[in-house]
Amino acid sequence: MAEDNITCSAGAYGPEIPAPELAYLPRDPKSYRPSIGLVGCGGITAHHLAAYKAAKYRVVALCDVDRAKAESRRKQFFPKATVYTDYGDLLKHEGIEVVDTATHPEVRGPIIKAALRAGKHVLSQKPFALDLDKGQKLVDLADRHKVKLAVNQNGRWAPHFSYVRNVVAAGLIGDVMGAHLAVHWDHGWTAGTVFDKIRHLILYDFAIHWFDMLCCIMGDRPPRRVYASMTHTSTQKAKPPLLAQALVEYKGAQATLVFDADTRFGARDSTVVTGTKGTLTCSGPDLNRQSVTLYTEEGFATPRLEGTWFTNGFHGTMGELLCAIEEDREPSNSALNNLRGLALCFAATASAETHRPKKPGQILRMNK
Q1: Count of CB atoms within 10 A of residue 367's CB?
Q2: Fold that domain 35-153 belongs to in CATH
């Protein structure tokens, strides 16, 4: 075969065409600006609060068992906020309508439950539950109290992932046949930290975003089964396995997730989604620098996307909840919707432990 017959070039994909204009950026409610209370003021909340401040959201209360952490966040972002060390006291604040829970998952459940019972809408850090049955009970509790329960799956609003979601939802590549997401990066910074205690550091703590994104890409199509594996590298210093992968079967489609977390040179993040009418690819050296290309019968398009994962992500999750409250609908990042990603994640970790395929939904609890 001649070399020019196997060489890929832009010309092989037809002409370059304008990229579809899609609503991939975070959206704000038209006029609804409720008072927000944050429970838990750990490291990641600097990104929560920076996004809320930039969006001109109103954070009126901050709570952490370590008062110094809450006061530090107040000084940095919302100087007029009231500081609490007991979330029960924050929930008594009658003016607060929305509670952002950003504590560790082991203690998050009772906080979410108390907030829902107090009539507050809740944005929960991910994962919102470590047990599918308990997660469903929280969903039911929110329904009974007529409040919204959403999950901070901020990866959905990372510019490239958000564009992928919108391309698929708009039907621009037809029915999805394959979704292949791979991340090659150095996660070795976790060695010697509390993350060494998380056995499924990669398939659970990190990959929860990718399982959720896969569910967004596949829509209502249920996964038939998942097979996953994990192992240590010969050079890693972290205690949990840093290599993990998962293969997911669907009717008429397949998906793979690959995580090489001991990649010290040439880091790369890539996504390929193939459909009956087109293909979408994303690639870059990290999660914030991504080149996105859409290929269809008409040609290829490369959109210029704005923002970064954290900037767009934390704005997007809270913004979607506030829009849903204003429009009296379920948020797209609702807890009920999020249960699908949790079911897939739990099945993958169980498969990695047993070396056998598992059916999502049959593994009810996360064993970290």
Answers
A1: 12
A2: Rossmann fold (3.40.50)
User: For residue 220, which phi and psi values (nearest 5 degrees)?
Assistant: -85, 0
Write out pLDDT tens, residues 173-219.
Answer: 999 999 999 999 999 999 999 999 999 999 999 999 999 999 999 99
**In 3D, which of 311, 364, 307, 303 has the Cα closest to residue 339?**
364
- For the chain, the structural domain boundaries read 35-153, 156-307+333-354
SS3 244: strand
Higher pLDDT, 317 or 5: 317
Q: What angle do CA 280, 203, 197 make, to 5 degrees?
A: 150
* DSSP track, 303-315: ----S-HHHHHHH
Residue 127 near residue 155 (C-beta atoms within 8 A): no
Radius of gyration of the chain, Cα coordinates, nearest whole angstrom: 21
- Which is nearest to 269 in space by CA: 255, 283, 252? 283
Tokens 């009658």 found at: 94
- What is the sign of the dihedral through the CA atoms of 44, 49, 51 and 52? positive
Specify which residues 58 forms β-bridges with: 35
* Nearest in space to 182 (alpha carbons), one of 247, 109, 91: 247
Q: Using one digit for the tens of pLDDT, what is the confidence trace for 123-150?
A: 999 999 999 999 999 999 999 999 999 9
Cα distance between residue 156 and residue 281, in whole Å: 16
In the chain, the amino acid numbered 180 is H
Task: Report the CATH fold assignment for 156-307+333-354.
Answer: Dihydrodipicolinate Reductase; domain 2 (3.30.360)
CB 183 within 8 A of CB 260: yes
Candidates 230, 37, 15; CA nearest to 121 is 37
pLDDT digits (tens, 9 = 90+) for 165-186: 999 999 999 999 999 999 999 9
Cβ atoms of residues 362 and 347 within 8 Å: yes
φ/ψ of 161, rounded to 5, equals: -70, -40
